[in-house]
Amino acid sequence: MNGEENVSEHWKETFISLLPEKTAEIWEGMTAAIDALYDMDRLWDKGFGPWQVEYKYRRGGKTLCTFYAKEGEAVLLITYGKAEREKFESIRDSVSLHLQRIFDETATLHDGKWLWIPLDDGLKTDDVITMLKIKRRPNRK
């Protein structure tokens, strides 16, 4: 392993160690699905506020999504601008009521909606991929 791989492995171990086993499994399933569809830079960093670790998917200066972890909990952050909110409204019936409720209950700020999605049993990988496809088409076959 080179130095960069060692750093990534350290962050990944830290991320997983913060989480209950079930939450870590959900995170690993989500990231495997994203990795299968998207060729993106994967960036590890320390979190902010209560979040201890962040794992971001980014390409061309634009973030697809970011995972955050703290002791016992992880979330997925997806931000939607105006065009993405309109696209979501057109496909909302294709995602779970759980995600529809998160979307509806999230305030719209001057820079869009910041959807903080808990990684729990109510979250389905297919729904997340549908939401990410609104932001960016997959670039892997």
Tally of separate domains: 1
Secondary-structure element order, N to C: HHEEEEHHEEH
What's the number of helices?
5
In order across it, which strands form the biggest sheet?
1-2-3-4-6-5
Structural class comes to alpha+beta
CATH topology name, in short, is Aspartate Aminotransferase, domain 1
Number of strands: 6
Sheet-strand content, in percent, reads 25-35%
Measured distance between first and last alpha carbons: 28 Å
CATH architectural grouping: Alpha-Beta Complex
Radius of gyration: 15 Å
Shape: globular
Helix coverage percent of residues?
A: 40-55%
Stretches where pLDDT is under 50 for at least 5 consecutive residues are none
Q: Mean of residue pLDDT?
A: 93
Give the biggest sheet. 6 strands, antiparallel
Determine and state the CATH class. Alpha Beta
Walk me through what this model shows.
The protein is α+β, with helices and mostly antiparallel strands and 141 residues long. The chain has one domain: Aspartate Aminotransferase, domain 1 (Alpha-Beta Complex). 44% of the residues lie in helices and 28% in strands. It contains five helices and six strands, in the order H-H-E-E-E-E-H-H-E-E-H. The protein has helices at 3-17, 21-37, 82-91, 97-105, 125-135, and strands at residues 41-46, 53-59, 62-70, 73-80, 108-109, 112-118. It has a six-stranded antiparallel β-sheet. It starts with a helix and ends in a 6-residue tail after the last helix. 21% of the residues are buried. The mean pLDDT is 93.
